[in-house]
User: Fold this.
Amino acid sequence: QVQLVEFGGGLVQPGGSLRLSCAASVSMFSINDMGWYRQAPGKQRELVASISSGGRTNYADFVKGRFTISRDNAKNTMYLQMNSLKLEDTAVYYCNADRWDRVTMALLSYWGQGTQVSVSS
Assistant:
């Protein structure tokens, strides 16, 4: 089992910045890909950014150049630096992690409880 806890959400004005953190309950050296997703009211959950165990990153077009995903395996934490925030970035942001399960021989996916990010003037 992997527990994921997000921190850092809040209210910010347009153009502002926030940094989200996702703390894992297990060593992140045992975790494969990780990602940040978001879900706005009335919309489906969507991928924001992902990072592989080797540090390869991928971003949704709507955050390229504004958001940066990173992970610190030694601290068991993943981050999302969000700059130049827009009204449409308002959503609940979720942390996701994939980890190989040796018992079931399957890649299992885990989710955090989410943290609210609100961009408003």
The chain has no helices and eleven strands. The chain has a mean pLDDT of 95. The first strand starts at residue 4 and ends at 7.
